[in-house]
Specification:
This protein has about 350 residues and is mainly alpha-helical. The protein has helices at about 35-50, 60-70, 80-90, 100-110, 115-135, 160-170, 175-185, 190-195, 225-235, 260-265, 275-285, 290-300, 320, 325-330, 335-345, and strands spanning about 5, 10-15, 25, 200, 205-210, 220-225, 245, 250.
């Protein structure tokens, strides 16, 4: 029977053999018998063209999204991909995968989120990656469309001077004091600090480490612990057997920033986030003469390009090069021709 109904289902189903002898059973998605028969005939014709004429199967965006999530399930950011695709999928329901253009992608992203250009670019980059996979790896489409990104504004680096940092610490609730001190001492990201365990720390050697699966760049980070960091850790000894930083004796999970922002307000510090403590740490090191390569390694950044944004804070290392002009100017002012001109005058 080409079409049939299953028990306890109002939809019609198809049961056909493709030209290669493979049996295909699937729902038609309709309770109307005539529409179901049309679906059957269309599907049978598509299967014949794919097999006999070597045509590509007509794929949907939904199929591509599901395959992407399955093949990329190991990604650390896969949860973010799921959220984005859940918002984007409704905008591609009436269009086939091979029909999607760059303009479709931009329109869908603009409808899905009203966030900043940088956030929209993350959506667009995901769409571009999926469409390229559909072309290069899966051969589902002949050509992936060009998906252009929005121009992003370069944001300034927000950091505190030491006196501001001390003032902020003075207004923090007690449980945040060692956390903020540790952040300023090590430059670790908030998630790595809140999830830090005692088995990641060697107090005798004054080192700690973040495992690759816990690091944003996906590679291990070794953290040399200065005295400020050691003091912050010692203040936490005995509070919990596994995690380092706690609130009322329990691990901090999904911590609120209310206490931190309230302290910022009381200290008169505006436009400052917890992540800016990392910027502050990096800025202090750069201004103390630490090189970009060393800062990259200390902070666990993926590339040196990501730390160049701090370079403008430390022009001192360029002074020795700029002094070459002094030598040139000094030489030009004492050439024989100039000396003769002075004597004639």
């Amino acid at each position: 029977m080409p079409i049939y109904k299953q028990e306890n289902s109002s939809f019609w189903y198809v049961d056909i053999l493709d030209p290669g002898g493979k049996r295909i059973r699937r729902s038609t998605g309709t309770a109307d018998e005539k529409s179901a028969q049309e679906f059957h005939d269309r599907l049978k014709g598509d299967l014949w063209r794919i097999t006999r004429l070597d045509e590509k199967a007509v794929r949907s965006f939904n199929e591509a999204a599901l395959r992407w999530l399955k093949e990329k399930s190991h990604k650390r950011s896969i949860h973010g991909d799921k959220i984005k695709l859940r918002k984007l999928r409704p905008f591609f329901e009436k269009i086939k995968l091979h029909q999607i253009t760059g303009e479709h992608c931009r329109s869908a992203v603009n409808e899905a989120t009203q966030a900043s250009s940088s956030t929209k670019n993350r959506y667009l980059a995901l769409l571009r990656a999926i469409l390229r996979m559909a072309e290069k790896e899966w051969t589902w489409i002949d050509k992936a469309p060009h998906v252009s990104l929005y121009k992003e504004k370069k944001r300034r680096i927000r950091w505190l001077r030491p006196v501001e940092a001390q003032r902020l610490i003075g207004f923090l609730p007690p449980h945040l004091v060692p956390i903020v001190r540790f952040a300023l001492a090590t430059g670790l990201r908030k998630t790595n600090i809140y999830s830090l365990r005692w088995d990641q720390i060697d107090m005798q050697r004054h080192v700690a480490w973040v495992h690759p699966d816990e690091a944003k760049a996906g590679r291990a980070i070794g953290i040399p612990l200065n005295q400020t960091a050691i003091d912050a850790l010692r203040s936490q000894i005995g509070k919990h057997h596994e995690v380092v930083f706690t609130y009322r004796g329990k691990p901090i999970k999904g911590a609120s920033n209310v206490g931190f922002y309230k302290a910022c307000d009381l200290a008169g510090i505006k436009d400052f986030r917890f992540h800016d403590l990392r910027h502050t740490w990096a800025s202090w090191l750069i201004q103390s003469g630490v090189g970009l390569a060393e800062l990259q390694e200390l902070g666990g950044w993926e590339s040196v390009e990501m730390v160049r944004r701090y370079a403008h804070l430390a022009p001192d290392h360029l002074h020795k090069h700029s002094k070459h002009i002094d030598d040139v100017m000094s030489y030009s002012c004492h050439t024989p021709d100039l000396e003769k001109e002075k004597q004639v005058a």
